[in-house]
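Quick one: structure tokens for this chain, please?
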Amino acid sequence: MSRLSILSKNKALGFVLGLLIFVLFIPGCWALTTNIAPTAARQVDNKVAVRADVQNTSNSSSSLGVGLNGIADYSTQLPFLDAFKSSRQWITQCVSGQPNCNGEWDTEEYNLLNLDENGWVKSLPSPEDAPKYTRVSTLLLREIPNRYPSGQYIVSYEGEGAIEYSFDAKKDEAASKPGRDIINVDATQGGGIMIIITATDPKKTGNYIRNIKVVRSQDEQLYQSGEIFNPLFIDKIKKFRVLRFMDWMGTNGSEQKDWSNRPKPESVSYSYRGNVPIEVMVNLSNKVQADPWFNMPHQATDEYMTNFAKMVKDSLDPKLKVNVEYSNEVWNWSFPQATYALKQGKARWGDKGDAFMQWHGMRSAQMCDIWKGVFGDQKNRVVCVLGTQRAWRELGNYALDCPYWVAEGNKPCYQHGIDAYAIAGYFSGNLGGKESVSTVESWLNDADGGFGKAFKQLKEGGLLPGFKDSLPDVENDFKYFLDVAQKKGLKLFVYEGGQHIVGIEGVENNEKLTKFFMELNRRPEMYEIYTQLLNSWKQAGGSLFMHFVDVSSFSKWGSWGALEYVAQKGSPKYDALMDFIDKNPCWWDRCAVEG
């Protein structure tokens, strides 16, 4: 994820000070990766069945891609028919009156759970045992009232034990039987579905509760036919030519390193434990006929990257290409990968302030060599992407040219098969900056509630101090970076883009401005702003533009979703994206997907 950041840099102070003042403030994206999360899984084997009886062709000449919002129990994206795929990490709980139990919500003993290789709970301690917890629970569809369907859901599972339900869900005792519970859900309440395992494997035979699936009764037949994706979700993303899986992979701060520990389709949840498996992401790409964009974890070994590439080559539709990028925003000090890159770079080249970007360039080059080597005579299907920070124009040169690695006898990093240089394509007008607060608050007293001046600032600039981030500024950056890319023989991509209207450095806690920013995103004028942004990108000569993100509810951390919930019919932002696709078939060389 990425966010344009905003502090100016004094190059004369050198890289050490640069590291301090070059911090990106991206509360929106950071919130997406640090809020309550999780997801759960099904699957009987490593093959993830996906119905492909209808071939999508609506994106064959599409000019836009989209980043998929992260999997979470509170997400309004609802990508899976099985809602347990998005369940939260197990919560360990006890019951008041049991030894040492004060009835706390979470005893915080997850690390003491007896889990199988897929994350299912194999046993529960008795009240007399040392751990506090005697039961485990999880949450689905949490705090998103009216953003998921009410009605009857089928909870199927294997094994023996006892399951209880709470919050929005009530069990129909008469209709339920072992291994198949019927629950009635009222989505208007906002509590979500709470599933509590109060007993498992009571006979101690190893037959513990596992493979829980939660599917709407009306979707059960579709699910049993092999479909795993929500048709409504598919419909909303089907016009995008590329799907960026950065958040689905949990890229920011990823702990993925060794291939043996990669997430598997059988995993209890896709919102933790390594997040979404390769098999599921490839199958979604095949179903939508969209090129995937994978972000290699910053700690990934060469073996991990090699095997990842092999699996994609073997299972991705041969008509599709694959975009690969080393981690995400390796220069962004809000994310652990930046600190990791700096540490690794200094260990290799000494105490040099630019080591993090040179390391970023080196690993991107090595990644590209690996992927294109695996694809062999199909290497043209691999699109290697090198990302850089837009606000510090010169920073990317250290990754492109990587002189420290070149001094070891290697070619410059960009000459290792890199195909595209990528920047953020955000605009904010600096509406959420600390120095803008008093002025923007004064606009709220205008007859139109301040929207006129806000859109004027977004469109033209000149009304607020500080960071210059209105559409003309963004357009100038497009032209600058296109020139850099072309001189290196590279295409220019936007890896994330769209509006970036969010409070930063404490302004996110200003409730009046948060409400104002969310309403700005819903205003019809946003259609025109988005259209102007995309037209300027095309006119500048850019190639692929990736919007951030597909579906996400609005909050003080940002209004990132083109849609606020998956059942939403449309929005000014989403409609602008769809209309741009319809009116602007991809314009760069060999971009149309061949049938």
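The two ends are 32 Å apart (CA to CA).
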